[in-house]
Write a structure and sequence with these properties.
The protein folds into two domains: 40 residues, no CATH class; 150 residues, Nucleoside Triphosphate Pyrophosphohydrolase. With 196 residues, it is α+β, with helices and mostly antiparallel strands. The strands form two sheets. Strands 4, 5, 6, 7, 8, 9, 10 and 11 form an eight-stranded mixed beta sheet that branches. The chain has three helices and eleven strands. The protein is globular and about 55 Å long. A hairpin with an 8-residue loop joins β10 and β11.
Length: 196
């Protein structure tokens, strides 16, 4: 399959960059599409981490205000630790930094789960997902950086509560849903490995 960009033009250059593309691509039947116009939001790739204490069998989640959820009555979302990767940063170092900034501790072990696009229909963001071994005794009550306007509530949750939180829609952020669903499927394995 092939595609061709005929024209691209930067439409907006702020916190995010929005570029409009005019393109064609090969169709499954071998023909080519008519000229398509698509807008693409470019943002840095990111990391996210499920913070898990295998000794207490608890997870540490964060809650913060999210502009993308302002159409809801409650735009404060429960999420997992996450942050953007700046140019030339190593993803694992970003996970450690974000863990310190958001929940006040550092993971003693990190395991990469995988990666995924958040919304490839119009967004370039690629998430690298991890699980990190932490100790709930070391976490802060709140986190975030004042200079970034962050106000983060730290929440310690028994691992056994996660399936209920997912099934009732209490967790509405896709990155957290993906990470926590992975955790639910792999909880016993991870716990046994990290308790050895």
């Amino acid at each position: 399959m092939d595609w061709k960009i005929h024209q691209k033009q930067l439409q907006y250059d702020g916190h995010f960059k929005v570029t409009q593309y005019q393109l064609t691509h090969q169709k499954y039947d071998g023909n080519e599409t008519p000229m398509l116009r698509r807008e693409l939001v470019a943002r840095n790739d990111a990391v996210a981490m499920v913070a898990y204490d295998p000794h207490s069998d608890e997870l540490v989640l964060v809650e913060q205000f999210r502009i993308g959820a302002i159409n809801e009555q409650q735009p404060w979302l429960i999420e997992i630790v996450a942050g953007l990767i700046e140019q030339d940063e190593v993803p694992e170092n970003v996970v450690i930094r974000e863990c310190q900034e958001e929940i006040g501790c550092e993971p003693s072990e990190l395991l990469k789960i995988g990666g995924f696009y958040t919304s490839p229909g119009g967004n370039t963001e690629w998430i690298q997902l991890y699980i990190g071994k932490i100790s709930v005794s070391e976490v802060a009550q709140s986190g975030g950086l004042d200079q970034e306007g962050e106000d983060i509530k730290v929440i310690v949750v028994p691992a056994s509560d996660i399936p209920y939180m997912l099934s009732t829609g209490e967790i509405r952020s896709a990155i957290a849903i993906i990470g926590l669903q992975w955790f639910v499927m792999n909880r016993e394995n991870i716990r046994q490995t990290w308790l050895q």
